[in-house]
């Protein structure tokens, strides 16, 4: 017997995508483990662990791909005809900026206390979330500050473009949505090859990866817009009843296999986005479909939903804990320090615990109060109920 069709809008689009909320934590935790691993594995200097380095390096970029695709999916899923661009932009800015300002302020204080230089280049573009547009490593990746906020510069472009982009994608006939999705996925795969025409010098700090091709492929907001569009097209496929019915478990296995292949076989620049975006889109669609059909999944447990809700705060605090917490990455010998396996495990475990605690505090004391207070004008808040939480990621 074939699976029942996914309800079309408005029934499906009104569903609460709790599994995607749980998946958000997995993606954030991948970024955290990535950054812990790329610091601690070289410190241990055990030849038997060197095979793990490509996978540690790929975990974080894979988590970022997930968030970019997820943003396009859930914003399209939650879009309502009566919404306005100003209200939409207001909600998104209130979602990201309070956490951003608090963590940036904390980063600047910590930089001053520890003697790291605070300059216009490593503060002003980051404050306004335009750093990813500027192909300068000091601007995009100031390792003593909250470097992962470069991804918010990409998200800001997505949010600004979404009200104009959605009507254009809604004009695509349902029968051609898969063709468009495949085309966008192929464009994502082509980006590293386009980047080969860019200069190979200089290289990214502490690596041998050419900076210009990496910036164009990984950090440039317009390049990452393709993943956002992939998510939008995937949402339209599900809402229009064109989903192929791929169950969640096979979708997880496909995404996992694509990660193993791309991380283990492809050069770093090619493995950080490439074909995995397509399989992540399938995974997100399978999770949303499972929620619409009322299936029970591991990702929609109470614990996973709670962790998913604090995932954005986790993303915003984790690098500061790595820099200034037990691992002392911001120290003078942060990149060259040596460690034992037991000490590395203790430092890594403490980093995870402290990050989760600070993420919960940031969510409870900053993010949630700000969203409740400022996401809607007072008049609108009094006249209409809150919008359903569909697991929108930042």
Provide a short characterization of the protein structure.
The chain crosses the membrane at residues 25-44, 56-79, 100-130, 150-170, 177-198, 218-239, 246-266, 272-292, 304-324, 344-366. The chain is an all-alpha fold.
Q: How large, in whole angstroms, is the Cα Rg?
A: 21 Å
Distance between the termini: 38 Å
What's the pLDDT, averaged over the residues? 88
Per DSSP, the total helix count is 16
Number of domains: 1
Biggest sheet architecture: none
Helicity, in percent? Answer: 55-70%
Poorly predicted ranges: 1-10, 385-394
**Class from secondary-structure proportions:** mainly alpha
Q: What is the H/E string?
A: HHHHHHHHHHHHHHHH
Shape: globular
According to DSSP, the number of beta strands is 0
How much of the sequence is in beta strands? under 5%
Q: Care to describe what's here?
A:
- This protein is mostly helical and 394 residues long.
- The protein has one domain (18-182, 225-375).
- Helices cover 66% and strands 0% of the residues.
- The chain has 16 helices and no strands.
- Helix 2 crosses helix 6 and helix 9 packs parallel to helix 12 (276-292).
- The longest helix is centred in the last third of the chain and has 34 residues, at 341-374.
- The chain is globular, with a radius of gyration of 21 Å.
- The model is unreliable at 1-10 and 385-394 (pLDDT under 50).
């Amino acid at each position: 017997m074939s699976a029942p069709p996914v309800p079309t809008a408005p029934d499906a689009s009104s569903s609460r995508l709790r599994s995607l909320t749980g998946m958000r934590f997995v993606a954030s935790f991948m970024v955290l483990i990535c950054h812990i691993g790329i610091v601690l594995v070289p410190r241990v200097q055990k030849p038997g662990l060197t095979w793990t380095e490509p996978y540690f390096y790929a975990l974080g970029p894979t988590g970022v791909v997930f968030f970019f695709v997820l943003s396009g999916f859930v914003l399209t899923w939650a879009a309502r005809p009566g919404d306005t661009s100003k209200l939409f932009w207001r909600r998104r800015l209130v979602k990201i900026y309070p956490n951003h300002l608090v963590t940036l302020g904390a980063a600047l204080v910590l930089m001053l206390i520890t003697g790291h230089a605070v300059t216009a280049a490593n503060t002003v573009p980051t404050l306004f979330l335009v750093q990813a547009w500027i192909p300068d490593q000091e601007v995009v990746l100031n390792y003593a500050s909250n470097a992962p906020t470069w991804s918010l510069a990409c998200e800001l472009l997505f949010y600004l473009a979404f009200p104009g982009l959605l009507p254009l994608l809604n004009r695509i006939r349902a029968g051609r949505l898969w063709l468009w999705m495949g085309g966008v996925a192929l464009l994502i795969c082509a980006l590293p090859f386009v980047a080969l025409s860019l200069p190979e010098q200089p290289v990214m700090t502490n690596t041998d990866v050419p900076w210009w091709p990496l910036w164009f492929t990984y950090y440039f907001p317009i390049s990452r817009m393709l993943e956002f569009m992939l998510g939008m097209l995937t949402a339209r496929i599900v809402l229009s009843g064109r989903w192929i019915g791929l169950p969640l478990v096979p979708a997880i296995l496909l995404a996992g296999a694509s990660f193993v292949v791309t991380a283990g076989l492809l050069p770093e620049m090619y493995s950080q986005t490439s074909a995995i975006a397509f399989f992540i889109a399938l995974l997100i669609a399978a999770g949303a479909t499972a929620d619409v059909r009322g299936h029970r999944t591991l990702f929609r447990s109470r614990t996973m939903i709670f962790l998913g809700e604090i995932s954005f705060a986790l993303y915003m605090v984790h690098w500061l804990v790595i820099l200034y917490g037990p691992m002392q990455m911001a120290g003078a010998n942060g990149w060259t320090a040596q460690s034992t396996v037991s000490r590395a495990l203790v430092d890594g475990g403490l980093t995870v615990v402290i990050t989760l605690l600070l993420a919960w505090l940031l969510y409870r004391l900053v993010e949630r109060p700000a969203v409740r207070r400022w996401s809607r004008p007072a008049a609108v808040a009094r006249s209409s109920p809150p919008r359903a939480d569909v697991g929108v990621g930042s």
